[in-house]
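Our example copied in:
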Amino acid sequence: MTDSASPGKRYHDLDALRAVAMLLGIVLHGMITFIDFPVGLWPAQDVKQSEAYLFLLHAIHGFRLPLFFLISGFFTAMLWRKRGTKALLKHRAKRILLPLVVFLPLIWIAFIFVVMPVAEWKTGQPADEAAIMENLNLDFSSLPDGIQLVIFGAIIPVTHHLWFLYYLVWLIAGFALVAMLAKKFNWKPLPAKMVVSPWRWLWLVPLTMIPQLMMGVLGLYVGIPGFGPDTASGLIPWPPKLLFYAIIFGYGSLCFGHAEFEQVGRRWKLCFALSIPILLLGLHWLDLRNEAYEKSLQLGEPTVMQYHFLTSLCQAAYVWLMSFGFIGLFRRFFSKENKGIRYLSDSAYWLYLAHLPLIMIIQIWVSDWTWPSFAKLIFLCVLTVIPLLLIYEYMVRYVWVGTMLNGKRKREKVAD
C-alpha cells in the first residue's frame, strides 16, 4: 500500500530528528578533547580525560550520521516525487554542493591561521607531524599502486568535518541515475513487506554488515580502531564507507511513499532496550579484536577475524536499532509543528557547519582548567552554540547565507 499524497506532507518529526543528529555532532566533537587520541589528531588534549567519554563517543558515532543519511534519503525521494529529477538536482546543488564549496575553504583558513596558532601558543611548541606519523601505520607499500592511491585519497582529510556533504553529493547523483534508469526500464517499487515490515531486518543488517566489515579493517590497520562507520574525509570516496551510506540512504528513499512507514519505530522502547546489550557486546568484541591484533599484527589471524565478524555484526544491528528507535520516539513526541523546534531545526545546519574551529579554540583555552570534565563539556557546548545562534539570527537566517542553507526566510513583524 502506498500513500501518493505524502509529497505534500510536512514531516516535523523527521525535521527535528535530522537537526538532533547535527547537534549531537557538536557534543561529540566537544567530547574528543577528553579522550586520549593519537598525538596530533586533535589540537586540544584536556587534563581531565576519561574512558567514559570514549564510550559515549562510540555510542553516539555508532548511529548519528547513519540516522542523518537515512532521513536525507527519505527527503530526497520526497523531493524527487514532488518535483522531478532536474528540480531535485538543482535544489540539492543549492542546499548541499554550494554550502560545501563556500564553507570548506573558510574552515581550512580558520584551522590553519587561527586554531593551529592558538594550539601552538598554548603548548609552546609547533605541531609535530613526525609524532603524528609515529602514532599511525600508513605503510601500504605491500598493496597494489591503485589501491594505495584510493586509500591515501580517502584518508587525507581534505573535506574535514564537511565530508558528509561531499558524500551526499555522490549519493544524490547516484539516486538521480537510479531514478532515471527506473523510469526508463519501468522498474517496480519494492513491496512494503520488504521495506517497512519486520521482514526488513532480515536483509538490512546483513547488507549493512558487508561494508562495515571492510571499514573496520582500515581503522584497525592504521591504528585508529573505532566503533561504527569510518570517518575518512578525502577527495576519493572510501568505497566501503560510500557503500555503507548508500545502503542507508537508499533504504530511507525506499521508505518514502509507503503509508506503512508510519509503523516503523512503533516499538521504539524495545529498540532502545535491545541497543544497550548490542552496544556493550559490540564494544567488548571490539576490544578483544584489538587485543588479538596487537599480539599477532595479522589481519587474517583467525581470532582477529572471529572477533571482527562479531563486533561488525553488533555495529550493523546497533545502527538500525538506534535509527528506528529515534524515528519512533520523535514520531511519538514531535510530529506536530512547534515554532521553537522548527527554528532550532533550521539553525542546526549552520551550527554544525560553523562550530568546529570555535569549539577547538575553546577546548584549547580550557584544556588545563581543573573543572570537572562534565562541567567543562557543558561549558564548551554552550559557549559554542550561543554565539553561533546569535550570528544565525542577526547575520545568517535572513540573508543570502540563510537562503542557501534553508531557503528564504522572512523576519516576523512584532505586533504593536
User: Anything to note?
Assistant: The mean pLDDT is 90. The two ends are 50 Å apart (CA to CA).
